[in-house]
Structures are given as structure tokens and as C-alpha cells.
């Protein structure tokens, strides 16, 4: 799971319709469907969740605390560099490349995110998959909570 999911899960009510819908969808998924999945985070998710408003960070970390962590392996660092080198993810978004690489190198089936800029982006989806496969990995399905139903 990438940081945007826990952010929408724990945020105060949004001021626009899109944010409100994402918050409600994430809360519903967390309540009704999350038990069907083993959820993992990384040090990067934890660090990102710590940033910002102290009260919001406290809410995010409370949700994240019981979740197991994926560790950065040599293959993770190599895939992160490859995603940037092959322009699947821009240099300015190395952390997004790391989220993808962590899920990929640990054999995750899904990468749950609301990040449409660099992670869950139809314009870069094929490039991300090609880079992962070129490095010998199967890319997880990158999706939002509303796209991830019950198994």
C-alpha cells in the first residue's frame, strides 16, 4: 500500500467532491474489503506518513503501526533506478519509483494507490510494466481501492 491510501483513509472531510469520494471509497474499502488482503507498507510509506500536520500524521501512523514492512533489497534499488532511467517515472519522482519497485521486487499482487501522477497513470502504465519485466519481475496490478474488490 502506498501512502496516499492511508492519507485518504484518515484525513478530515475534504473540501471538494473528488476528495470526498476518494475518502469515502477508501474508508469503505478499509472497513469492508481490507481483511481479504495482506497489506504491507515500507519505511518510505512510514516516513511520508510522518510528514505534515502533527495530528494528521498521528492518525496515519496509528493505522500503519500494525502493518508489516517490505525492506529495500538490492533488486529494489536496481529496479528503482531502472524505472527512472527508462523514463517510466521522472527523476523528480524517485520515491514513486521506489513504491513501485518495492511492491514489484517483493512479489506483491497489487499496489494500492491514489497517486495518479506517477504511479497509477494510464500514460505510463505500459512503460512501468515493460521496465519491471525487463528486469525479470512481474509488475503488480496498480489500482485504487475502488478498483480492488474482494478476492
What count of structural domains?
A: 2
| Beta-strand content | 5-15%
Distance between the termini: 17 Å
Parts with pLDDT < 50 across at least 5 consecutive residues: none
Mean pLDDT: 95
Structural class: mainly alpha
Main sheet, how many strands, which sense, barrel? 2 strands, parallel
Number of helices: 7
- Order of neighbouring strands in the sheet with most strands: 1-2
Shape: globular
Could you state the order of secondary-structure elements as H and E?
Answer: HHEHHEHHEHE
Based on CA atoms alone, the radius of gyration comes out at 15 Å
Q: Give the total of beta strands.
A: 4
Q: Which percent range fits the helix content?
A: 40-55%
In summary, what is this structure?
It is built from seven helices and four strands.
Features:
single chain; 151 residues; mainly alpha; 2 domains; two-stranded parallel sheet; globular
Task: Itemize the secondary structure elements and their pairings.
Elements: H1 3-10, H2 17-32, E1 41-42, H3 43-50, H4 54-64, E2 69-70, H5 74-85, H6 94-105, E3 110-112, H7 125-134, E4 141-143
Helix pairs in contact: 1-2, 1-4, 5-6
Amino acid at each position: 500500500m502506498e501512502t496516499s491510501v492511508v492519507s485518504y483513509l484518515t484525513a478530515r472531510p475534504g473540501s471538494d467532491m473528488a476528495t470526498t469520494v476518494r475518502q469515502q471509497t477508501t474508508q469503505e474499502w478499509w472497513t469492508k474489503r481490507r481483511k481479504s488482503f495482506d497489506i504491507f507498507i515500507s519505511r518510505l510509506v512510514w516516513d511520508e506518513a510522518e510528514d505534515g500536520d502533527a495530528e494528521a500524521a498521528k492518525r496515519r501512523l496509528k493505522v500503519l503501526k500494525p502493518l508489516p514492512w517490505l525492506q529495500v533489497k538490492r533488486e529494489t534499488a536496481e529496479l528503482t533506478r531502472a524505472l527512472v532511467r527508462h523514463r517510466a517515472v521522472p527523476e523528480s519522482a524517485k520515491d514513486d519509483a521506489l513504491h513501485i519497485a518495492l511492491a514489484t521486487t517483493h512479489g506483491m499482487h497489487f499496489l494500492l494507490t491514489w497517486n495518479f501522477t506517477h504511479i497509477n497513470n494510464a500514460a505510463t502504465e505500459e512503460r512501468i510494466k515493460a521496465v519491471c519485466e525487463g528486469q525479470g519481475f512481474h509488475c503488480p496490478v496498480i489500482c485504487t481501492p475502488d478498483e480492488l474488490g474482494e478476492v
